[in-house]
Every structure is written in C-alpha cells, then in structure tokens.
C-alpha cells in the first residue's frame, strides 16, 4: 500500500510539473485582453460561449464511457497499413500559377494557394495530436506530402481553435520563421506569443469580423465547439470557422463544429461557396453538439450553399469510437441523396478549383488491394 501511494504521488507530481512547465500547453491571455474579449457577444462570465449557450456537458458516467471506449478494440478503427501520401515539392509550390489549388495533409490541415499566395490552414504536422507522444494515437500516414522543413515561405496561417489536432506546438516552432501573419479566433494568439511569435504578426478576430489581406477578404465566422489545452482553460479562447475569398474564388472552412443554425446564416450572408471544407469525423453520440455526424456534414454543406463539399477531420487520427472509413462512406452516401457534389482526394493530391477532378474518389476502399 505504501508503494502504491508513493507511485500515485509521484505520477501526480510529474503530471503537475509537466502541465506547468511544458510549452505544449501554450499561453494565457492577459487581463487586458480579457477586458477586450468582454466586449464580444460571445464572451460571458470569463469564458467564450456558443450561440444559444450550447455546451458540451458530459456526466461522470458519459466521461467514463468515452475514456473506456477509446481503450476498447474497435474494428477497422485504424487502417490495416500505412496510408501512402502523394508528394509535392517546394519548387512545385513556388512555381504554381494564379489559379486556386488545395492540398490536403489529412485531418484538417491544408495547403491553399490562392491569388498567388500560399496559405496553411490548421497546420498540424505532428505525429500525435496530444501534449506528449504517449498520450495519443499516431498518424495513419508515415509521411506527409512534404516535410515541414521543405515548405517555402507562407503568406498566412489560419487557425480555427486551440485543440491539439489543430494547433500543434512543434509545427508552429518549425513554421514561425516562414510565416508573414497568423489569423486566429480571439485568445488563441496568446499561445502563439508564448511560443515566440510577435504580437504584431497575429490578427485575432471575433465572429463576423472581416479583414483584408493582400487582395483577399478574410472573414471569421461562427462554429459550435469548445476550446482548451489543459485542465483549467476550457473556453478561455474562441473557436471559429473561416471564409477566404479572392476575386475568383470563395472558400469556406468549417473548423470543428456541431450541426446548428450558424451554417445557414453563413450561407445566406456569404454564399455561394465554390468549395466548403466540412468537418466529418471524430463524432460520437456522447458529444453530439460539438462534432457533426456525417449526414449532418452533407446537410451543413447544403446550408452554407456550397457548390462542392469536401469532408475533412478524418483520415489521419483516431480520436473517437467509429471506424476510420465510416465518416467518408456515410457523408458520400448522404451527398448522393442530396444530389450534392463531393470530392474525396487522396492525402497530398492537388485539387485545382477550376477542375476538381479526383483520380481515385474511393481510394480508401482500394487501400487493401494495392
């Protein structure tokens, strides 16, 4: 019993020290910043809130189910073998013309080239979406389309919220000298400043705010989700979706979000969208308000008035209890029922907006046959 107590005390001490000393957990907004956030309609009693004050509240029983569910063996929860990625190189990125092109890195990370600018969205290039490698499952692909060190200069980075699968400390450390400017929802800039990025290189935005960047129109739009990187910082930073619009293209990036009325409001205000990159994966009936089920993903694409949708937030990590192909199979079926255009490119496959042709639209089904 004495040994058990000593072990428990030691583990708690190590965990506490890790949380307070590890840079992975990021920074905290200043008191002056919180006073500014108090002016937002989405900030109440010291925390950011969803429209209608929708929250993700889980009972102790549901929390236990969620944790034990992740420990169980789930059929086909990860691919049977490594997902091969298509490769791109720095010269191919620098030499690309004025068309709009996207390259998916799996999950929610994108390289976007638009109006002769190179942009990254939710640049999570790490192997594990957690503050320590032992606390998460590894990426399904052994390699990325391009190593982060080989990326050329980046004009802008967009971040939707501060969860580890969207905001990665190691990736930011390798990227920060390459990037002109970072766009984040309110509060997320505190993490970037803690990691060595100058405040003048960070633009924090509230929902419905609009900025311009070298000919692009940037709009921060709502999402229904939550935030936090530690135990005590839940909802201390805002979460969002993003619109990036050039004279030739109008793109919507959903971020993480449950299905709600904000999609229709966004579509009515700013649609139609040439392409909507829509969250589809890591859902569960235990947290239905903050992640969409695949059928809702297709419906949300219809709500935002998208000409074409692409399911994201899948294909890279195991963060829920469903099989790894369940998201794309179900959203594809629902899109077919709704007569909606959908693209499902391979990781690393370049997609040019004017000709969104995918080489193998059902590539995940062929994975075991190659």
UniProtKB/TrEMBL annotation:
Domain Metallo-beta-lactamase residues, every copy: 118-314
Any one GO molecular-function label of the UniProt entry: zinc ion binding
Determine the domain of life of the protein's source. Bacteria
The protein here is known as Metallo-beta-lactamase domain-containing protein
GO CC annotations?
A: cytoplasm
Q: Which Pfam families match?
A: Lactamase_B_2
């Amino acid at each position: 019993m004495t040994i058990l107590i000593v072990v428990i005390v030691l583990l708690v001490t190590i965990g506490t020290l890790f949380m307070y000393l590890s840079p992975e957990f990021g920074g905290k907004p200043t008191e002056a910043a919180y006073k500014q956030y108090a002016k937002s309609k989405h900030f109440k009693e010291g925390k950011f809130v969803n429209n209608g004050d929708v929250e993700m509240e889980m009972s102790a029983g549901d929390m236990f189910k969620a944790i034990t569910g992740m420990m169980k063996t789930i059929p086909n929860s990860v691919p049977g073998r490594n997902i091969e990625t298509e490769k791109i190189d720095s010269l191919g990125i620098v030499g690309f013309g004025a068309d709009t092109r996207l390259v998916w890195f799996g999950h929610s990370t994108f390289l976007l080239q638009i109006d002769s600018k190179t942009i990254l969205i939710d640049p999570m290039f790490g192997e594990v979406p957690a503050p320590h490698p032992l606390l998460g499952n590894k990426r399904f692909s052994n390699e990325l389309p391009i190593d982060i060190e080989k990326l050329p200069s980046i004009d802008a980075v967009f971040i939707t919220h501060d969860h580890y699968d969207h905001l990665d400390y190691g990736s930011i450390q390798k990227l920060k000298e390459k990037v002109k400017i970072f766009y984040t929802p309110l509060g997320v800039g505190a993490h970037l400043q803690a990691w060595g990025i100058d405040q003048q290189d960070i633009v924090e935005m509230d929902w419905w705010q609009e900025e311009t960047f070298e000919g692009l129109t940037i709009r921060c739009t709502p999402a229904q989700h939550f935030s936090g990187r530690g135990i005590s910082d839940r909802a201390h930073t805002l979460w969002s979706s993003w619109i990036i619009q050039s004279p030739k293209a109008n793109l919507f990036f959903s971020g993480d979000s449950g299905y709600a009325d904000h999609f229709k409001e966004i579509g009515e205000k700013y649609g139609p969208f040439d392409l909507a990159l829509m969250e589809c994966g890591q859902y569960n009936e235990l947290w239905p308000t903050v992640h969409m089920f695949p059928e809702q993903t297709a419906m949300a694409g219809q709500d935002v008035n998208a000409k074409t949708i692409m399911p994201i937030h899948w294909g890279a990590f195991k963060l829920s209890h469903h099989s790894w192909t369940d998201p794309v199979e179900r959203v594809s079926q629902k899109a077919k029922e709704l007569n909606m255009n959908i693209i499902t490119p391979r990781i690393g496959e370049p997609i040019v907006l004017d000709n969104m042709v995918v080489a193998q639209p059902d590539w995940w089904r062929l994975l075991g046959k190659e």
